[in-house]
Fold this sequence. Notes:
This protein is of the alpha/beta class and 647 residues long. It is built from 20 helices and 30 strands.
Amino acid sequence: MSDIDSVLKEARVFPPPPEFQKKAHIKSLDEYRALYKRSVEDPEGFWAEQAATLEWTRKWDRALEWNAPFAKWFVNGALNLSANCLDRHVAGPRPDKTAIIWEGEPGEVRRLTYAELLREVCRFANVLKGLGVKKGDRVGIYMPMIPEAAAAMLACTRIGATHNVVFGGFSAEAVRDRMNDSEAKLIVTADGGYRRGAVVPLKANVDAALAACPTVKHVVVVKRTGQDVPMQAGRDVWWHEQMEKASAECAPEPLDSEHPLFILYTSGTTGKPKGVVHSTGGYLLQVALTTKYVFDLKDEDVYWCTADIGWVTGHSYVVYGPLCNGGTTLMYEGAPNHPGPDRFWSIVERHKATIFYTAPTAIRAFLRWGDQWPKKHDLTSLRLLGTVGEPINPEAWMWYRRVIGGDRCPIVDTWWQTETGAIMITPLPGAIPTKPGSGTLPFFGVVPEVVDKDGQPVGPEAGGYLVIQKPWPSMLRTIYGDPERYVEQYWKRFPGIYFTGDGARKDKDGYFWIMGRVDDVINVAGHRLGTMEIESALVSHPKVAEAAVVGRPDELKGSALVCFVTPRSGTTADEALRTELKGHVVKEIGALARPDDIRFTEALPKTRSGKIMRRLLRDIAAGKATVGDTTTLEDYSVLAKLREEEE
Ligand code: PRX
């Protein structure tokens, strides 16, 4: 197999704005470089120093014990995550500071101070104990985006129960499989949650799931929507009734640094979900440090990460990172286009959000809905924008910068994974000049490289496989119940180094350009092209909102390029546009990437977290029936439509 040919050309560079730089935690490229150098010459020394920013109940003996590929960070240290996120702020300068600003989809707003959140968490920790949950037990959380979800997570960490959050958009089957795989003892849910004006029947899904979950003994139900739900005597209890009776005092349990904090199942775009296990001390340290430096978080910020707590981004950057830093984190329950396509912008305006962190899939949707929606609102409170989850096409990046950021806000394109726990490759907004579509440089202590199939660095500008060469504190520790799969999946391909599964290129400035999953690489006439780069060329055309490119087996070329294209609102999708787009890709990339086939579609099939499911599109392009797991499909009707168009 040859390496990956990178064809994306992008020459724009945006230095940090001087006013931003002056006030930033890290103020210049030189400062970043000096600290980075220090951090990789002696990563253990660097992380050991940083560990002093957390509150430990027992000091650790060694920063790292590395029996590749199994790591222990802060060996024999003990701490409690909820104490780091809550108690120390309450005992310190922030008891009355707002910890969470919450907005429900119907429009209600709640604010919880650090002192109030701590009381909620202690109460719920006592409720869990009362229902027989002990240190080391697994607790399922299947909830809407409401403050109780964050409180439930923190309550688990207070007593040392390992949480397993399942995204509220998943089905009963997904809940059942995840509860069984993790052998959960209790599940926290709500009667329902609001999504695009409708009610998601969470409790009904739990009831269906529990028909085949023998380990789950209790269900705690938050009353959110007030619809009628049957309560099974002896098993189901109401959150509010339990909380009323519970004491607001609960001492935080000192936990070993390596104590399993949570399990999170990655749905991914292929294969059976894996229960990724994260530990306590190392995870919290890297999450807290990245939140501070990547988002340049200050006490006065109103920080909004739009991720659902069902994803790792929700764990690390809605709940734990901001709270550990004493920040104010904004949570929104519902859809971005309810009641109108400007809902997010009205939230930014109403709460004067200063930092906004979202996903490329959302940005491309905003772009498609049109500039008029953000233009209706005052977005001048924003000072920093972020993106995560997929490669962002340079044109979507430019739109984000111009229309949402008013050409004023730096953009941090943060590369990381459920498995990495925290951000790994990213700009620091006051220090690192950005280039649209690049995650730029590694975070402190992180040593990534782009290698060929033999594990040798490929050198500047060449495409290859993205690996991480040294262990990092927030790395996954194992796959729950399946350490062999952990070794097989991440550490076999290049022995002793971590294989991310992503393709990438490093440019002459050492900037990383992530090309997406390596299974999204197509071999066209001997060139291995990352689909993301061809998609970016398509999206750079003014009539295109979104595109997905897949290969179709072709006798002559190996693969033919099939492009699924969603035009912008108001565009006629016809033969003329097809010809125009083919010419456009040739102009942007070259004749080697000329699309063989362009199919117009109103929407693309996506995973629940918004990643395009190219596997399904490949099957459609090849005329095959869909195979494999489709439980993560956002919208089955999209798939049916694409099929119809084919017939
Ligand atoms: O392919 C990369 C892509 O998302 C994958 C990780 O997905 P998940 O575990 O769901 O975590 C998402 C939130 C961290 C990566 O292997 N990815 C994530 N962020 C970026 C990205 N690709 C390019 N640029 C990014 N900033």
